[in-house]
Amino acid sequence: MKRDDTTVAGSNAGGDDDVQVIKMYAAREEIYSRQIDGRYTRLRWLFVWLTQLLFYGLPWLNWNGRQAVLFDLAARKFYLFGLVLWPQDFIYLAGLLIICAFALFLFTAVAGRVWCGYACPQTVYTEIFMWIEHRIEGTRSARMRRDRQSWTLSKLARKFAKHLVWGALALWTGFSFVGYFSPIHTLWSDVISWSLGPWESFWIVFYAIATYGNAGWMREQVCKYMCPYARFQSAMFDRDSLIITYDAERGEQRGPVGKASGDCIDCTLCVQVCPTGIDIRDGLQYMCIGCAACVDACNSVMKKIGRAPGLVRYATENAMKEKLSMAEIRRRIFRPRVVIYTLVMWLILIAFFGTLLFRIPLKLDVIRDRGVMGREVEDGIIENVYRLQIINTDEAAHRYRIRVSGVDGIALASPEVVEVAATETLALPVRVRVPPGIGHPGSNKIVFDLQSLDNERYKASEKAAFYIPR
Fold this sequence. Notes:
The chain has helices spanning about 40-55, 90-110, 115-120, 120-135, 140-150, 155-180, 185-190, 200-220, 220-225, 230, 250, 270, 295-305, 315-320, 325-330, 335-355; strands spanning about 5-10, 15-25, 60-65, 65, 70, 75-80, 85, 245, 310-315, 360-370, 375, 380-390, 400-405, 410, 415-420, 425-435, 440-450, 460-470. It is an alpha+beta fold. Strands 10, 11, 12, 14 and 16 form a five-stranded antiparallel sheet that branches. The protein has a four-stranded antiparallel sheet with strand order 15-13-17-18, with no helix packed on it. Strand 1 (about 5-10) and strand 2 (about 15-25) form a beta hairpin. Helix 1 crosses helix 4 (about 120-135), helix 2 runs antiparallel to helix 16 and helix 6 (about 155-180) packs across helix 8 (about 200-220). The termini are far apart.
C-alpha cells in the first residue's frame, strides 16, 4: 500500500493552523501491457481456448433429450450428463469443493500460482479483453501516445469500438452463465423474442457488468486487492515451490548492451509485458500471478543479444541458492507436504467417485399422518395413514413394490406396486393395518421397503412408527 501525505495549511507557534491530509490509497496508475510471443504465452492461450470452449459450449450440449449440464434451481434438479442430483445430494457438492481445495493446495505447493497464471477466470478474461484492446487501439506505444492526446474523432471511434466489443462479449458471458441455471434454448428464444423474465434479465446484466468491470477496467486490481488467494498463498509455498525468479547473480550489474557487467540490459521489457505492472527483478511479490509473460519477454531479448535464456525463469528458492538443475528440482517435488496433499486428494477422489458409481438412484421418505394417530376400522383392525415420498433420480421410469414389516400381521391396505416416472417425485398416501390384539399400545417400530421390479439393485428402506391407541 502506498501512502500519499499532503500538507494543506499549517499550525505553528505563530498561530497558523497545520493540517495534514493522509491519503490511504494511491491513485491507480494505468498499465499498458505489451504483447509478447513465446512458449508460456502460447500455453496460456491454449488454456484460454480450452476453458472458453468448455464454458460457452457446454450449455448447448444435449443428453437424452435434455441439456447435458443444467442446474435447474426451480425444479431443484441438477443434471450432469447422465447423473441427476437432488438437494438431498448436497454432500457431493461439499465433496467437490474439498477436492478443488486440495487440488489448489497441491498445485500451489508444486508450481506456485499456476492456477492464477493460466486458468483463473480473471486471468483468462483479462487476457481476452487485452487482446481485443490491442487489436482495436494498437500497440502499447500507440495506446500510450493516443491517451496523452486530446480527444479526436479517430480516438473516440476506437474507444467506442473497443467498449462495444467488450460489452457484447460481457453480455454473451452473462447469457452463457445464466444458461447453466435456466434451459439455454428456452433462454435464447426468450432473448430473441424480447420476452425474457425479470430474474434472467437481472442476472445476465449483473454478470455482464461484473465481467466488463473486472476484465476491462479493474484488471490487476482484482488480483492485487480483492483476491484472497494472493494473501494466503505464502502459507502454501515453501523453498522448493516453483515460482517466477530473476537470477540476480547472473543479471547484475545491469546496463546497456556492451556496458553491463551482467546479462540484464535493463530493457524493462519484463515490466512492460507484466499484466500487474510489477518488476520481477525486485524479487518474489504477492502481486505476481505466475503468468510467465516476463519469462517469454526476457528469453526473446536474450536470444537477440546472443546470450543464454533463463535469466528470468521458473525455479525454486533452493534451486537459485544451491544452483540446482531442473532434474534436481523435479526430484524434490515429492516432499512430505506434496505427498500428504496427494494422498488426501486421492482418498477423497476415490470416495467421491466410488459413492457416485454405486449410488442408488432412489430415495424414500415416510411421513405419518399426524392428524390421525391411529384409528380402529372394521373388525377391530387398527389403521395408520402415511405419505410415502418416492424420488426416482434415474432417467428411466421404474415400477416399485412396497412392503411393510416390523409387527406381526402388518399389511398394506393400498396398492403394493407403483410406477414413478423418470427424475420425478411421487407423493403416495398409503394405509397400513394391523390385526386386533397385535402389537402393544403406543408406538411400534415398523419398516417400509421399496424394491424396483426391473432392477434388483434399486431398493430403499425407511423406518417409521405405527401407533396403536391405548
